[in-house]
Amino acid sequence: MTDLPRRHQRASSATAVRHGRLPRRRAVGAIARLLAAAVAVVAVSAGSVAAYAVWDVTRSFKPTIHLPGLPGHTDQAIPNVGAIEGGVNFLIAGTDSRSGLGGVYQSSEEQDASSGAGNNDVTMLLHIAQDHRSAMVISFPRDLMVPIPDCPAASGDGTAYGTDKGMFNTALSRGGLPCVALTVEKMTGITIPFAAEINFTGVSAMSTAVGGVTVCLATPVSDDFTNPPLDLPAGQNTLVGDEALSFLRSRHGVGDGSDLGRISNQQVFLSALARKVVDGGVLANPLQLYGLAKAAATNMTLSDSLSPTTLVQIGLALKDTGLDNVVFMQYPAVTDPDNKERVVPNEYAAELLGTALVNDRPVKLTGSTGVAAEDPTPTGGATSPATPATPPDTSATPTPGGPVALPPSVTGQTAAQQTCTKGNN
Known about the structure:
Layout: H1 30-35, H2 39-42, H3 48-60, E1 88-95, H4 108-113, E2 120-128, E3 135-140, E4 145-148, E5 151-152, E6 159-160, E7 163-167, H5 171-188, E8 194-198, H6 200-209, E9 213-217, E10 221-223, E11 230-232, E12 235-239, H7 241-249, H8 259-279, H9 286-298, E13 300-302, H10 308-316, E14 326-330, E15 333-336, E16 339-345, H11 347-358, E17 363-364, E18 373-374, E19 404-405, E20 412-414, E21 420-421
Parallel strand pairs: 1-8, 3-14, 17-19
Antiparallel strand pairs: 1-2, 2-3, 4-7, 5-6, 8-13, 9-12, 10-11, 14-20, 15-16, 18-21
Helix pairs in contact: 3-9, 6-7, 6-9
């Protein structure tokens, strides 16, 4: 994605997002309420308001997308009524395309930055264990250089040919949402039956629907390359609409100015949003619930395996997981030896993570919260970036039957941690 300088950024704008992590207490699927547009509607009060809300949100969904699956993979059964049985693999991709968004995005600068299908600027995978006792949210760096498989062409006619080494965020422009799912399947070894795509305006509308999101800043955050520009003081800041999107989109203003820093910054925001949904009264406010669900539904395109009912069932699967058992992490990566502006998978750590996913094992983080986040609590653990681990790394040896301890090179946090953003000062 191309960032635009301040002179092009004064008008209000929005950006797509997703990587999150959850808040503190028990919650009825806070992550899924973010990713699943219809989950919030279920909590709307009974009667005519609820009936209209369900109907209106349902009709707001865009046409669905079919996910083909890699050769040799079997389709996951689509769940029936009640909490989904078994595990879940749910991919969400945020596109940076400005096409069809109107407003400030009609400018030539914005259209030149990204139009058409766009790139998957932010990509996250939600994995819920078969027993629903643990979950992971994995954020994939947009600058990751990985094999991209052959995909059905986005036009629906023919094949979009893959490459042995391509930039991860080009998967969406190559073959749409199915190509993003196929690429992540190839990287992790799992099957992804559920996926959704969200555009720039989605998060802006969702943050407004809940009355703003209050985030903690360990230091000031400023960024002239977002739209609108950011100039936030240290401390607690309540972000609404386009300012919230600028915060989520910011790279130059947080951490080390990279996409990797942006990932940990987004986790700070999404955890705060989840806390507000769970603890801040949103669940008791039918108007906010309906607004949140409508904002998500209007700006998301779902795979044809998803329906409002399925989204509710995925949310219910997280009801009793416990926030200490929900782990947010960045996909393991190191600097690309061929290009210092890109990253490649940390093969050892990525293999451990893939094995945990395929075998449905919980994971335990041993590293930091990431370059743009810190845990201010005394028991928060390490907050500085760790040196990438290479085998042998005894700290990452799986315990039989227990969590797989990931090496210190894997950054992230649990849903129970409340972190603060570190500005790029």
